[in-house]
Amino acid sequence: MDNCIFCKIAKGIINSKKYYEDDDFFIIADISPKAKKHYLMIPKVHYKLIADQTQNDNLVLAKMIAKIPVLQHELGLDGGYRIIINQGENGGQEVPHLHVHVLGGEKLN
Ligand code: AMP
Ligand code: ZN
Q1: Are 9 and 30 in contact (CB under 8 A)?
Q2: Which of 95, 91, 14 has the alpha carbon at shortest distance from 47?
Q3: Is the pLDDT of residue 37 over 90?
Q4: Catalytic annotation, residues
Q5: Does ligand 1 come within 6 angstroms of the Cβ of 15?
Q6: Cα dist from 93 to 33, 46, 73, 101, whole Å
Q7: Which of 19, 57, 89, 103 reaches 20 to 30 Å from 64, CA-CA?
Q8: Model confidence over 52-99: pLDDT tens digits?
Q9: Ligand 1 centroid distance, CA of 31 (Å)
Q10: How far is the CA of 28 from the centre of ligand 2 (A)?
Q11: Nearest ligand 1 atom to alpha carbon 38
């Protein structure tokens, strides 16, 4: 998607430090952090909603979630974290490219 900020970051058109990257997804820090540590896990393929996933995208989402405990220490998330996926207007989704918020680094309310 030409006008999508996360697609632009995925393609390197917009520069952003990637804390992790593989063929399927990458991790960046949220530009407006809501906790001491606030990451976004972003699939490289553009789609907005979980409901829009192909079967393969579905596997990527599972892979992303499974990667969090593997990277937990490296990302400063020891002690626990919160996973959030905003979906659609009522869910408060601002960027229409599926992403997983991972928050931690402190005790969250
Ligand atoms: P959501 O409301 O779930 O769509 O969340 C979108 C998130 O993307 C917000 O928390 C923004 O702060 C974050 N965001 C928007 N643009 C960027 C960017 N260029 N780099 C990092 N995070 C961004
Ligand atoms: Zn996109």
Answers
A1: no
A2: 95
A3: yes
A4: 99
A5: no
A6: 15, 15, 28, 11
A7: 89
A8: 999 999 999 999 999 999 999 999 999 999 999 999 999 999 999 999
A9: 6
A10: 14
A11: 10
Q: Which residues are registered as beta bridge partners of 25?
A: 43
* Residue 93: burial class (beta carbons within 10 Å; 0-12, 13-18, 19+): middle
Q: Alpha carbon 100 to chain centroid distance?
A: 4
> Is residue 24 within 6 Å of ligand 1 at its C-beta?
no
Q: How many helices (H) and strands (E) does the chain have?
A: 2, 5
Amino acid identity, residue 106?
E
What atom of ligand 1 comes closest to residue 101's alpha carbon?
3
CA atoms within 13 A on the CB side of 65: 9
Of 44, 33, 62, 60, the C-alpha closest to 8 is 44
CB of 94 sitting under 6 A from ligand 1? yes
